[in-house]
Amino acid sequence: MADNLISVTGLSKQFESGDQHVTVLRELSVHLGRGESLALTGPSGSGKSTLLNVLCGLESPGSGRLAMLGQPLAGDGAPTGKALERAWCELRQSRLGVVFQDANLMPTLSLLDNIRLRARLAGRDDTSAGNWLQRLGIGELGQRYPDQVSGGQRQRAALAMVFVTRPALILADEPTGSLDRRTAETVADELFELQARHGCGLVLATHDADLAARCLHQLDLGHQGRP
Ligand SMILES: Nc1ncnc2c1ncn2[C@@H]1O[C@H](COP(=O)(O)OP(=O)(O)OP(=O)(O)O)[C@@H](O)[C@H]1O
């Protein structure tokens, strides 16, 4: 496994809004090694989700160099076209664990089956699925469907879906944002414990200063381009 999980140099991202170009990320450099954690902070609209989307291949960077787990994905040496799509798919399938603000569970499967399916898609053993639900405090909800549980419970199931694949790198957008304080702490404990135990990397976007302070590095996107 590459020691450098994330290597981003001079990355910029613009969006078109009507006839205007809005620069959201400006000349960013980000490096993350194995077992390290990074909190993306900054006010609403500063580009935290946009950066996470670039890091999991859902948005392409406008310019700059990007390599994930040693694989160049933008700039020098990066594949293009279908080969680039394939490279991102392979990374997301088994090596990146992505947690979005809206938990991405299949509505027609129970929570337990969602997690089993995710494990199988990543080529992992699915027998620990129930155990992960248990550890995240929703073990008794495994037979329920996503629309039969609360938003916070869905969020915990989405985290179980990530943990069960044992990813090299977890990218999480407000992973505890929809949880009450006590549950948020339990979930954060699980995140950091998993990271310590398996030496995986973690990048999370958060407005929670306490959660950000638990990460090894912090990047305030509200201060991009300023000295
Ligand atoms: N597809 C898009 N097209 C145009 N503008 C966009 C697009 N996606 C995001 N933006 C804009 O980019 C800026 C950064 O958005 P982003 O969601 O990355 O911020 P954020 O820091 O994650 O915010 P929050 O803390 O509210 O989640 C915002 O001004 C947003 O409106």
From TrEMBL:
Q: Where is the ABC transporter domain?
A: 6-226
Q: Which residues cross the membrane?
A: none
Q: Name one Pfam family in it.
A: ABC_tran
Answer whether the UniProt record assigns the keyword ATP-binding to this protein. Answer: yes
What UniProt keywords apply to this chain's record, in alphabetical order? ATP-binding, Nucleotide-binding
Q: Choose one Gene Ontology CC annotation of this protein and give it.
A: plasma membrane
Q: Which GO terms describe its molecular function?
A: ATP binding; ATP hydrolysis activity; transmembrane transporter activity
Q: Does the keyword rRNA processing apply?
A: no
Q: Which SMART domains match?
A: AAA
User: What's the name of the protein?
Assistant: ABC transport system ATP-binding protein
